[in-house]
Amino acid sequence: MSRAFCIPGIVILFIALVLSFLTSISLPFLPALDITRAHVGTKGSVQDGAAGITEIRLGVWAPCYYDTNGARTCLKTGHGYSFQVSNQDKTKTVTVGSSWTRGLAVHPVATAVTALALAFSFSTHITVTLIASLLSFLAALITLIAFAIDIALFAFLKHQLNNLEIGAKTLTGPGFWLTFVTFILLLIAGCTVCFGRRRDRLSGATTSYSTSKRPFWSRFRRN
């Protein structure tokens, strides 16, 4: 593959892999890379009885909340978690079930496919680079699915907290936007690798044609 296309494609895939990997770790390991968060003032409480929480953050593997002292507490860690939030008087309770968080596991799947695409992109073999391009597009598709799941979780959390009437302000988290950026980068990487392969084929065909074509004056030579 042409070096002019090969190096940018590898760099873009590497950046996409790093972003996807960080998003996949998420909460509770990287508190700043949550998918969605909600500021609830001091009017909410969570299922373990803690009251006076100021913020709730949802990650790929766990929900975490912050109290009035700024201390962070994470609830059950694992795939497909669920939790409840109540108003201050505990007269209303809403639940974010595992059916809304189970799909977040798509994030590490996208990371794994991106890693495969990056590994294949180092090859100079035309067939292998084609596989790298296809894997990049596949990773982009899986990342798009993960992003759709993130949107659904954000919308559901916002709807549920609004039902509590505690003045919650639900926002998208950094992990949400990292997923979107990763999707764009994977599309660019897939196109870059694909165009590089096409340019390499055209270059090879031109070289073959040039070496096989006889000069016009050779027609006048005697055998």
Could you characterize the architecture of this molecule?
This protein has 223 residues and is an alpha+beta fold. The protein has one domain (3-203): Butyryl-CoA Dehydrogenase, subunit A, domain 3 (Up-down Bundle), CATH 1.20.140.150. 54% of the residues lie in helices and 17% in strands. A hairpin with a 4-residue loop joins strand 2 (51-58) and strand 3 (63-66). The longest helix is centred in the middle third of the chain and has 39 residues, at 126-164. It is elongated and about 65 Å long. The two termini are 41 Å apart.
Overall average pLDDT: 83
Shape: elongated
What count of domains describes the coordinates? Answer: 1
**Beta-strand segment tally:** 7
Helical coverage, percent range? 40-55%
Supply the helix-strand structural class.
alpha+beta
Q: How does the major sheet shape up?
A: 7 strands, antiparallel
Separate helix tally? 5
Proportion of residues in β-strands:
15-25%
CATH class: Mainly Alpha
State the end-to-end distance.
Answer: 41 Å
CATH topology: Butyryl-CoA Dehydrogenase, subunit A, domain 3
Order of helices and strands: HEEEEEEHHHEH
Radius of gyration: 26 Å
Uncertain spans, ≥5 residues at pLDDT below 50?
204-213
Topology of helices and strands:
Layout (H helix, E strand, L loop, with lengths): L2 H23 L10 E11 L4 E8 L4 E4 L5 E3 L8 E5 L5 E4 L1 H4 L4 H16 L4 H39 L4 E4 L1 H39 L11
Antiparallel strand pairs: 1-2, 1-5, 1-7, 2-3, 3-4, 5-6
Helix pairs in contact: 1-3, 1-5, 3-4, 4-5
